[in-house]
Structures are given as C-alpha cells and as structure tokens.
Amino acid sequence: MSLPDTGVPLTSSVPQKSSPQKSSPQKSSPEKSLPRTAAGERVLSSLGDTFHVFDTTLRDGAQREGITYSVPDKLAVARLLDELGVGFIEGGWPGAMPKDTEFFARAAAGELELRSAQLVAFGATRKAGVRVQDDLQVRALLDSGAPVVTLVAKSDVRHVARALRTTNEENLAMVRDTVAFLVEHGRRVFLDCEHFFDGFSVDRDYGLRVGEAAVSAGADVMVLCDTNGGQLPVSLGRTVAEVVQRTGFRIGIHCQDDTGCAVANSVAAVEAGATHVQCTANGYGERAGNADLFAVLGNLIMKLELPVLPEGRQSELVRVSHAIAEIANIAPDTHQAYVGASAFSHKAGLHASAIKVDPELYNHLDPGAVGNDMHILITEMAGRASVELKARELGIDLADHPQVVERVVQTVKQREARGFSYEAADASFELLLREELARDGVGPDEPMTDLFTVESYRVIVENPLHTEREEVSSEATVKVHVAGRRVIATAEGNGPVNALDTALRTALDGLAELRDVELIDYKVRILDGDAGTDSVTRVLVSSTDSHREWTTVGVHPNVVEASWQALVDSLRYALTRSAPSPTAHRSA
User: Fold this and answer.
1) Fewer CB within 10 Å: N-end or C-end of the chain?
2) pLDDT, tens digit, for every residue of 185-240?
3) Is residue 404 part of a domain?
4) What is the 3-state secondary structure of 243-272?
C-alpha cells in the first residue's frame, strides 16, 4: 500500500554537527553517490565510515533458541567478524547480562584486539523518572569501555503508553538525556528506534520526533527497526525514503525475518538511502531470525557494487559463516544464499549442459568471489554433461571416453531407480567412474574391485535374556582375499555394523593406507515406508583419514547388507586415494 507523504515537517530544526566522524546526510542511494573516475566508473575503494556494516550476532543473534555463547565463544566470534571486516560489533548488554559484562571487561583488558571493527555496547535509555546520572544500567554502558553505544528507545506511541507506562514527552526526554550524557563522556551513539515501522503506520510523526531528540543530543544514526519483522520490501523502502527526505538524518535499518523478507528489506532500505545496516551471522536471532549478514553483504557488494568491506574480504564469507556456525553448535544451512555448500550446486541435466559451455549461464556470480565452489550433483536427472562435469570436479577427465560417460549415465539411472543416491556420496560415484574406466583399460593395472575381494561375511547378534547383565553383543566374521592371501578375521562390536567394520579392518590390517581411516557418521533411511520391516534401506557412511572426509552409499532390503556395501566402498575409496588418477585432469 502506498505511504503518501503527510507534508508535515519536523517540529524543530536539528543543527548538523561538523564532527569528522559523522557523514553528511544521505538523501539518495549510496550506489549513486559513490565517487567515479573521469570515465564514469565507480571507485571501489572501501566506503569506510560513510557506510556502516553493523553486526549484532553476539547480542540479537544470541537470542536464537538453542544458542548459548560462553565468554570465550563471544571473543572468538568477534575475532572472526573483525577478520571479515565489519565496521561495528555489538557485543551485548553490559550491566544487564553478567556474561556480557565479563565479555567487555576481558575485551578491555586486551583479550580482543580489533583491526577493522569498533566494539559496541547495547543498552536502554534511562528509566522514566530517574536522573540519567543515577541510572545504573546507563553507568554500566560507560563502564564497559566500549567506544560506541547503541541505545534502544520506543518509537511507537502504543509501546510508550503500554510498555513504558509513561508519556510521549517523557520518552523523548529519556532519549535526549541519555544520548547527551553518553556523548558528553566521549561515546559515539546510535539510536535503535524499536517498532518504528509499526509505530509509523499509527503516528507518522512521533517516531521522527524520537529520532530528532536523539540527533539533537548528539546521536550519529537513527536506526529504523522492523522489530516484529512484519514489513515487505516495497512499503518498507517507501517509508525509509520518506524518513530520509523529511529528516536529513543518517538512517540505519534493522530487520527481523518473520515474513522471510529481512534480507530483501535491508537491501531495499539501502536503495532508499539507509547507510547503516544491522545484521547477524547466518541470520541467527529470535523467532525466525534476523537479516543474514552474509546474504546482505553478498547483495550489497556483488549486486549493488558497494564496497562495504575492505578490499578482498568478501572471499572470506564462506569461511567466517561456517566457523561461526561451528562455535554456535548449529549445522550450517547447506542451502543458505552465497555461503551454503549447495548454493552453487546443480542437479538438472539441462543446467549441466549449459554450464559445460559457460558456468555463468546458470550461476548468478563466480562462486569463488565469496569463497564458495560450484558442485554438480549426480542423480537420475543426470545426463552426459553432468557426469563429465562431476568427473572433472573429482579430477578425472572423461573428454576422450564417451563410451564410459554413456555407461555411467545408464548405471546411475538404474541404481537410482533401486534407491541409490549419489548426491551425498561422491566417493561411491568416483569408484563407479574408476571401475568403468578400468573396463576400458584406463587407469591402474589393478581394478578397484581387486584391491581386495570379499568371499563372505557373517554376523551373529546375541541377547542373553533372563540374565543379570542383559547386554546385546554382536560378532562378525569376514573372509577376504588380499595381496594373494585368504584372510579370515573375527571381531566383536556394540552392534552388527560396528562388528563388521572392525572385522574387515582386522582382515585388511596389512594395508597401511587404511590405518588412519575411521567411520565418523552413519545414516539409515527407509525408502519404502509402506513395506514396514521389509522396506528397502539406504545407508550413508562418512569416513575420514584425518586429512579429508568422504561418503559412500549402500542400498538393500537388509540393512546389514546395505551397511556392508557402504563400508566396503569406504575402504576401497581410501585405497584409491594413494593411487594415481586414471586420467589427467583437464581444466575447464
């Protein structure tokens, strides 16, 4: 819905300060105001203080369900964000949260040396009816030692009356007093106008009066907060543009993701004139989360061509995203824009055919620009181009072997129809490639299947019922042929798969390449739930040798047999790692 300008000016004029820290008011998109060469090309040096990338992962992002940062965690996250090159890192609420108070104390003691960013303390304006110099939480903001303070203030008249339980004028006085007090003590102040957009729909002037109170007292930025996350990009952009036009203040944006539009809303705000963007790493935050820092940065840098990070830092997006996810103990979102492992993965054969000609035809940018990679997924949708590109990705050139490509395509389609999946099992797919090449006499003299051959295996599961120690035990025996010898090995395990794995490794103990290999993940999926216990099962086994990880797949109605297939493939793959590639890799 259109938001017409009321034509009502602010009630008083706000003098513009000449502080070197504060940029002149932005009344147009920063993209248009970038310096240009005589040829009209944008000068892509860092925007520095003319544009703020403000991260609140350690404060707002920490409100996500399931995240609990320790103080060392917070210090580690702050270092990563600084390495990325963000301008401001909001560390928490000192005085209100003991852990945050300790974080700022340790940072001030020298445990956090920032190269690019400034540390920000978050807090509220003074309490109603309390002198600012007597408000302990305001004092805690000074005691934190942070050079920058973000204050949150109510900008919706309904919240002033119902949440603060005070008058509109007292709320304005609370803003003025607190900002002036902090500025007087040498702090740079940003004001978060909480619930600004919801309040603007009710009273189009009061939120602007809150911003005026802050800026007149010395605040640098008026941040418009979509606290409930209910805005959509077009209407939000119109509101931001109106605020920029009516105030001339430096405007910031803070978006929650309750409509799934936080990133789009943030970009729309920048295009409307905002020059301060608040985000969280990986979109962490309360409810549906916040605007994802990495998606916002990707859009601003790669799409709007705004150099909002120091030169070259955008290639660190993937590394920093995944490192912070590790600290938060949350699995990275594989489909996250720009930084997800699948962000540049292609499954359809039609896509692969085009990518073979030119990767840009189905990639919106070079994945390497943000530190990511392109991947080709092998499924029943795969065609010849998919197989050739995936093989090239694995270091195998099939350009001169069309017959191998055709056999692999048909084999994949047949196996996928039976339940196999090679999307997450690159190691099994590489074994298939090598075996088909070996059939044509390409590669090592010894085929992959001859590294060792399995004669048989047997598993016994025993549950000694009605005894004092009701422990279920498993015992496996495997018979294999390796290095010209027939070897029989028996082992016990805490389950049939563990017993088989141990017995097979024991039988192959003479192969040095397998000594560091260990199983790190085991997943089972029922493919035909309607068949009950007679269903076909798919097993994925992930392994590592401390240098790299790989995944193999097995499918069978018997879960033990499916597991055995994946285990055998895993050890065969480990042995192929020490063998030369069957064909020289040819670059694209």
Assistant:
1) N
2) 999 999 999 999 999 999 999 999 999 999 999 999 999 999 999 999 999 999 99
3) yes
4) HHHHHCCCEEEEEECCCCCHHHHHHHHHHC
pTM for the model stands at: 0.67
Question: Are 282 and 337 a contacting pair, CB within 8 Å?
Answer: no
Q: Residue 54 — very low, low, confident or very high, per pLDDT cuts 50/70/90?
A: very high
| Beta-sheet strand order (sheet of 537-544) | 518-526, 537-544, 549-556
pLDDT of the residue at 586: 33
Cα–Cα distance for residue pair 308/297, rounded to 1 Å:
8
Q: Answer yes or no: do 107 and 248 share one domain.
A: yes
What is the pLDDT averaged over residues 365-380? 67
- Residue 200 CA: distances (Å) to CA of 7, 29, 195, 224, 229: 14, 22, 9, 10, 14
Q: What is the mean pLDDT of residues 47-63?
A: 94
- Last residue within a domain, chosen from 440, 463, 479: 440
Residues 324 and 418 grouped into a single domain: no
Q: What is the DSSP string of 483-551?
A: TTEEEEEEEEESSHHHHHHHHHHHHTTT-GGGTT-EEEEEEEEES-GGGGGG--EEEEEEEE-SS-EEE
- Identify whether residues 432 and 466 lie together within a single domain: no
Last residue of a domain, one of 466, 484, 510: 510
For residues 188 and 157, membership in a common domain is answered with: yes
Find the domain containing 352 and state its range.
345-440
